[in-house]
Amino acid sequence: AIQDDGKLIVVGEFGMLSGAAFGKVARLNPDGTADSEFTPGMGANDIVHAVGMQQDGGIIISGEFSTVNGKEYPFVARLLPDGTLDEEWGGVATGINGAVFDVGTLSDGKVIIGGEFTEVGGYSRNSYARLHFTGELDRNFDPGEGANGPVFTVAIQPDGNILLGGQFTQAGGFEQNNITRVFGGEQHALGRVEFRTPRIEYDEGVASHELKVIRSGNVQEPVTVQYKSVSGTANEGEDFVAVSGELNFETGGREAMITVSLLEDELAEGNESFAIELTSEAEGIDLGGRTSIEVVVIDNESSAGFDQLALEAGESVGEMALVVNRSGGLIAEATVAYTVQDGSAKAAEDYAAESGVLTFAEGAASASIVIGILDDLIEESSEDLTVTLSDPSEGLTLVGELTATVTILDNDQPVSGLTTFEMGMIPEGSGWSSSGSKPWYAQTDEVFEGSYSLRSGKISDAQESILVLEKETGSGTGYFHVKVSSEQDWDFLEFSLNGSALGKWSGRVDWKKFEFPLQAGLNRLVWSYRKDSGTFAGMDAAFIDDVLLPPVEPPAITELTESMSVFEG
C-alpha cells in the first residue's frame, strides 16, 4: 500500500529487511530503503497477506497470524502511522475464527474483511464481514448466508460497495461463481429486499403457491415494501387472481412470503406468464436487485406446434430435423400426423421423406420430423418443400401455424458447357430461339433433373414446334436428355445438327441421354416436334433437359524461349 507521502507499506512472510528485523510488515522510503522510523516491534508471528490504508493514517493488516508485537491479535490488527500496534482497536474481542486474506477500508473508518472464516464476534459470518472503526463486528452489515467458499480479494468501489473474489459458487444465497458485489456503504441503511429468484414455474392445476422475498444487509430495523401482480401473456381473472399488498419485515427478519393463486382452464394455450413487482417509497431500502419475478404458468392441457416455421438447409447437409414442441401435460404418449409436400423441390430428386405420424414419448417436450436432403450435381436455384401438421391424438391440441417451409440451398458449381433451364425460361442472348406454330417453353411437370425442362409448344394437327441453338463450340461429344409422349410412328421429335438428321423419337420414350459428335466452330442444333393431321396420343409433346456442348478451348499461350527477343516500341 502507498501512503500519501510516497512511502510504501510492504507485508509478507519476511523477517529481515535491509539488515534490520521486521516481522512480516515494514515501510520503505520513496528511494526503496527501509524506513527506520516505522517501528512495528516484533511484528506478526505468521504470514501477513494484506494491508489497507485508512484516511487518518492507520494501517490495517490481515493474514494468518495470531499475535502482533507479542499481543494476541488473531488474523487482523491495526497499526498506528509509526508502525506500533493500536491496542484500542480489535484484538481478541473481534473474535475471528479463521484466516483473513484481504481487507478493504471505507471512508468512515470501517473495514471489510474477506477470508476463510465462519464466525466474527460470536455471530455467523461466512467468509466476509464488516468491522466498526473500533475493530468490533458491525452487525448492521449482515450478509446472511455469506459465501460458501473462501474470499481471497476485496475491492472497495467509490460508492462504498464491495467487490469480492474467491473460490465460491454462492454468495448471500445466490449463485455467484467466484466473483460478486455486495453493498457495504450506508446509502441503503435499511438493507436490500428482493425475490430469491427472477423466475419460477408452477403447474396450472395447483391452485396456490408462495413466493419467497428475502432481505439482506442491515436487518436491524423494520421495513415495509409493497407488491402487486402485472399481467403478461397470462391474464388477470382468467389465468391468475390479481394480488397486491404490503410485506412487513420485523427487526432481524430476513424472509417474507407472497401467496399467488392460479386459475385452471380447459384451453390448450401453451405456457403463459405474469409478474409480481416490489416497490417502496421509503428511503434507505435497496430495491436494485430482483424486484420483479416472472411467474410461468405451465399449461396442463397438452399442445404442440412447430419450433420454427421457416428453415434452410444446404444441399450437402444430408438431413435436417423439423422440431415440433409439446407443452402442457407431458405425462402420456401423444401423436400428430404430418404431410410432406413438394414445392419447387421434388421428392426422390431433392429430398427423401414421406408423410407419416410423429410420436411424443412419455414426458417428452419435443420430437423431430427428419427430412433427408439429396445432393445432386445440377446447378439450380433454391428449392422448397412444406410440412403440415394435422390429426393430433386425443388430449393434444395443435397451436400456431401448422405448415413449415424447408428451403434447400444449391451447392453446385456450373458445369462448363452445360445448359440447364432452372431459370424457368429459354436462355436469352445465348443462341437459343424457338419458332413454328407454337414455341417451346420451360415447365415443371416433366423434368430429368432439377425443377425445369423445356417442352415443345402445344400444337394442333399438322403443326410443328421448333427449338434452335446456334453456338460456337469446341470439338468433342455433346449430349442432351430427351423424353417423348406422342402417337407412335406418326407424331415425332427430330434432332438435326448442321442440317443433318441425327435422331428421331416417336411414341412413348422415357427420359434417355442422347450423345452426338461435334466439330469445333459454329454449330446449329435443331429440335423439331411435328404432328400429323390425325389422332391424338399421350401428352402430344417432346421434352429436353440438360444440354451439354463442348466448350471452346482457350487459345494456347506461347512461352518465350531464349532465342526469342522482345522489343519495346
Describe the structure in brief:
It comes from marine metagenome. The protein is mainly β and 569 residues long. It contains no helices and 48 strands.
List the helices and strands and how they pair.
Blueprint: E1 8-11, E2 16-17, E3 20-21, E4 25-28, E5 48-53, E6 59-63, E7 67-68, E8 71-72, E9 76-79, E10 100-105, E11 111-115, E12 119-120, E13 123-124, E14 128-131, E15 151-156, E16 162-166, E17 170-171, E18 174-175, E19 179-182, E20 192-195, E21 199-203, E22 208-216, E23 223-230, E24 244-249, E25 255-261, E26 272-279, E27 292-298, E28 302-306, E29 310-314, E30 319-327, E31 334-342, E32 351-352, E33 356-360, E34 366-373, E35 383-390, E36 396-398, E37 403-409, E38 418-419, E39 432-436, E40 441-443, E41 453-455, E42 464-473, E43 476-485, E44 492-497, E45 500-506, E46 508-518, E47 521-530, E48 541-548
Parallel strand pairs: 21-27, 28-36, 29-37
Antiparallel strand pairs: 1-4, 2-3, 5-6, 6-9, 7-8, 10-11, 11-14, 12-13, 15-16, 16-19, 17-18, 20-22, 22-25, 23-24, 23-26, 26-27, 28-30, 30-34, 31-33, 31-35, 32-34, 35-37, 38-48, 39-42, 40-41, 41-48, 42-47, 43-46, 43-48, 44-45, 44-47
